[in-house]
């Protein structure tokens, strides 16, 4: 016998007397998406119409926290809300800037 075969027999390899147990590990490869934190920070600093930029920044931070915890659904929900608020802050900020000019 080879030394490798002896080690397997000693370590409790496939001796046939004990049933083998299998373990299944599910690894999530799903990308939770973006949290839009940089865009929210930009809108907070420069286009903070009706505090929409600040509220978007808050939702972005919440999205990042949810992503770190592993709550993918919550992270996507907060990121979607942050994106919507960022769009509104940007559009209203640009319209207000163009109106003043």
TrEMBL record:
Pfam families: CD225. Its main location: membrane. It is found in: Membrane. It comes from the Eukaryota. One of its GO terms (cellular component) is plasma membrane. InterPro entries: CD225/Dispanin_fam, IFITM_antiviral_protein. GO terms for biological process: defense response to virus; host-mediated suppression of symbiont invasion; negative regulation of viral genome replication; response to interferon-alpha; response to interferon-beta; response to type II interferon; type I interferon-mediated signaling pathway. The chain crosses the membrane at residues 37-61, 82-100. Keywords: Membrane, Transmembrane, Transmembrane helix. PANTHER family: INTERFERON INDUCIBLE TRANSMEMBRANE PROTEIN (PTHR13999), INTERFERON-INDUCED TRANSMEMBRANE PROTEIN 3 (PTHR13999:SF4). Belongs to the CD225/Dispanin family. This is Interferon-induced transmembrane protein 3-like. The lineage of its organism: Eukaryota, Metazoa, Chordata, Craniata, Vertebrata. The gene is LOC113886588.
């Amino acid at each position: 016998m080879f030394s490798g075969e002896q080690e397997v027999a000693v370590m409790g390899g496939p001796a046939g007397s004990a049933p083998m147990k299998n373990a299944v590990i599910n690894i999530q490869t799903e990308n939770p998406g973006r949290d839009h934190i940089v865009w929210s920070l930009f809108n907070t600093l420069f286009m903070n119409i009706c505090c929409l930029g600040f509220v978007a920044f808050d939702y972005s931070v919440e999205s990042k926290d949810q992503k770190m915890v592993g709550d993918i659904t919550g992270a996507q929900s907060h990121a979607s809300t942050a994106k919507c608020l960022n769009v509104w802050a940007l559009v209203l900020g640009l319209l207000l800037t163009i109106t003043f000019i």
